[in-house]
Design a protein that fits this description.
Elements (H helix, E strand, L loop, with lengths): L10 H13 L6 H28 L13 H10 L2 H19 L6 E4 L5 E4 L6 E5 L11 H14 L3 E5 L10 H5 L1
Parallel strand pairs: 3-4
Antiparallel strand pairs: 1-2
Helix pairs in contact: 4-5
Length: 180
């Protein structure tokens, strides 16, 4: 594969940027307006607004107490998934860990002739949130999202990792997501 370098300050580079940006223009800003309204409502309404939207979009019977998963639910999840899933999960975890451990190998910095410092600094944050989409009202658990977000965070040394995911229409989180 040949990668063509384009400079943003050239006519050709600007054309390429414009073409990329045009892909995302729909001419309809109703989605943006809807999302902005939700964000504003959550900013002002806090947890109650989140709960209201969770009831609207996910499960009408949700309450504050059901918005976190208990240790018992995690334990029960292991009983609900099949052995083949657990074996496949182990293989996936090993492969993802092997890949992402290489990203931790080195930080580097370089000072350019003009004094600009560029590089890569490997340093964990204290905590992170991991959003895992529910997929079709929770019926298609996106296990890969748990792995591809959680494993790199763990390898990086992030101490507190909090996963959020919408429940299924029954108000429950998929046991496959809990096990992952």
């Amino acid at each position: 594969m040949i990668v063509k370098a384009l400079h943003a300050n050239s006519a050709e580079g600007q054309e390429a940027i414009d073409a990329l940006l045009a892909r995302f223009e729909t001419g309809d800003d109703s989605c943006t307006r809807s999302v902005t309204k939700i964000i504003d409502t959550v900013k002002t309404g806090g947890d109650e607004a989140v709960l209201s939207y969770a009831r609207k979009f996910d499960s009408p019977d949700l309450d504050v107490g059901s918005m976190s998963v208990s240790a018992e639910e995690f334990r029960r999840a292991y009983e609900l998934v099949d052995q083949q899933f657990l074996l496949t999960l182990e293989i996936a975890i090993e492969r993802i860990e092997t890949f992402h451990q290489r990203e931790m190998e080195d930080s580097w910095l370089q000072t350019r002739d003009d004094g600009t410092i560029v590089g890569r600094l490997v340093r964990p944050v204290d905590s992170c949130g991991l959003y895992v989409p529910g997929g079709r009202s929770g019926s298609t658990p996106l296990v890969s999202s748990v792995l591809m977000n959680g494993i790199p965070a763990a390898i990086a040394g992030v101490q507190q990792r909090v996963m959020v995911t919408p429940p299924g229409t029954d108000g429950e989180v998929s046991p496959y997501l809990l096990v992952a």
